[in-house]
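Predict the holo structure. Ligand: 2-acetamido-2-deoxy-beta-D-glucopyranose.
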Amino acid sequence: MHVPMAILQLLTCLIAAILSTAQGSSPPSIPHQIHLLRPQTGAAGESVVGVSCLSWRLGVETNNIINWKQVPEKCAGYLGHYMLGHQYREDSKVITDEAFLYAKSLRLAQDGKNIWVFDIDETSLSNLPYYAKHGFGVELYNATAFNEWVLTGKALALPESLKLYKKLLSLGIKVAFLTGRPEDQRTVTATNLKNAGFKTWEKLILKDLSIYKGKTAVFFKSNERAKLEKKGYRIIGNIGDQWSDLLGIPTGNRTFKLPDPMKIPQTILELSHDSLLNIPRQIHLLRPKTTGATFVDKVEGLSCLSWRLAVETNNIIGWKTVPQECEGYVGNYVLGGQYREDSRVVTNQAFLYAKSLNLSGDGKDVWVFDIDETSLSNLPYYADNGFGVEPYNASQFNEWVLKGVAPPLPESLELYHKLLALGIKVVFLTGRGEDQITVTSNNLKNTGYHTWEKLILKIVGNIGDQWSDLLGSSTGNRTFKLPDPLYYIA
Ligand SMILES: *[C@@H]1O[C@H](CO)[C@@H](O)[C@H](O)[C@H]1NC(C)=O
Ligand SMILES: *[C@@H]1O[C@H](CO)[C@@H](O)[C@H](O)[C@H]1NC(C)=O
Ligand SMILES: *[C@@H]1O[C@H](CO)[C@@H](O)[C@H](O)[C@H]1NC(C)=O
Ligand SMILES: *[C@@H]1O[C@H](CO)[C@@H](O)[C@H](O)[C@H]1NC(C)=O
Ligand SMILES: *[C@@H]1O[C@H](CO)[C@@H](O)[C@H](O)[C@H]1NC(C)=O
Ligand SMILES: [Mg+2]
């Protein structure tokens, strides 16, 4: 595709402007206010074209959608707007702020052994200028051309990551860069890091192809983290844009997942330049704080959106109540079409996975369902109680549970029926107390969950709205995280 030079220059300047304000105190000034997350849901939840790209992105960021090769074609424009807009920066900032709060809360021995692992591409350095020049992948991904870009050493710092890096150093924490870039890019990578403001490090670990050729990113990275620990370092934090940066033992004491819906550079992102240039001035808010269907021309609520993403990706943990200023936002979200759409993408993914399995048919294949906010919804309760803004009141919540009138979550009920049809048994696993067994059974039956297996047999899948439903050993062969910004269970 032919792209006029002027347009390329404009885009490159735009990106440079966004990325070069690491030290600046004011937010980046973007000439054309472009869409944030492009919510596109009506207040009553009516379907609007493009809404599923937002759900798709959440599915990717929460590791529900895995092994994808390419951004869905219809989402290319959406993702381009996201990466170039405020939202990407804001989403990153909430996560790096959280990482710093965590680091600051630790009482660290000042023995030089505390280390924080940083991934490089799309975590410390951004390759967006490359993708802009190459039409954001309109030209097919070309490894030779990408390596030529890397060798220019001109990748820019991701501003929020650079801030975090400096703050960690000031706490006496050492930094290790751990990257899938090959050893022969060591010199240029080191120079690029320094020029971008990452001046010092304890280790710069690149992929030694004589050891790791053909090995997965998880294998390479966890192996190298284990080596660090063997050398006596304590990995207190680990930050990356890919789940493969963060999974695999040892992970480090706490991990932080930066946004990256593009999976650069494995993914080919096809972005139409026309869609970027033809940007309406109106900003679409994810969930306007009004109940009306019209979008408001203000960026209010922006950080609630980032807060929600950070919660769903397990970056913000241990929180007690929804931030006061996000009550309206969260209320609109859970009552609007977006919550359903987000759930639908996850349950569809779960069903596709289940269908792809060749199950033995011996009646021992089990799928674990959490109950609250997974199978049954307590929204009527939360709607009366500030959508998670009010501190949790156990006795009041139990009074609600005992009424046994919680409605089903429609997408979960559909998944339940489809799994049964595949011959998979269902086990409900809940934190509800034994004394609530009768009311819970009746509530489940009355809402369409007619049958279940009580014993936990061989677990093939596990779906829940809390990370605590999904973490731990015996997770099940694959886990699925439903959205839930209302409360947090450790
Ligand atoms: C890939 O990039 C290299 C270097 O820029 C170029 O010579 C080559 O023609 C490109 N290949 C394709 C298939 O476009
Ligand atoms: C990191 O985790 C280890 C093992 O659980 C624990 O002993 C240690 O106290 C943790 N360190 C910090 C700084 O939290
Ligand atoms: C399941 O079986 C079918 C046909 O026997 C086969 O084509 C497919 O690859 C199998 N899938 C898996 C995940 O093993
Ligand atoms: C919790 O709910 C109970 C029952 O509705 C009520 O009596 C009590 O005052 C509430 N506690 C607080 C701290 O609000
Ligand atoms: C689930 O995982 C176990 C252990 O890794 C494996 O043996 C089994 O084949 C897997 N089952 C399915 C259905 O994928
Ligand atoms: Mg990366």
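The two ends are 50 Å apart (CA to CA). The longest strand covers residues 174-182.
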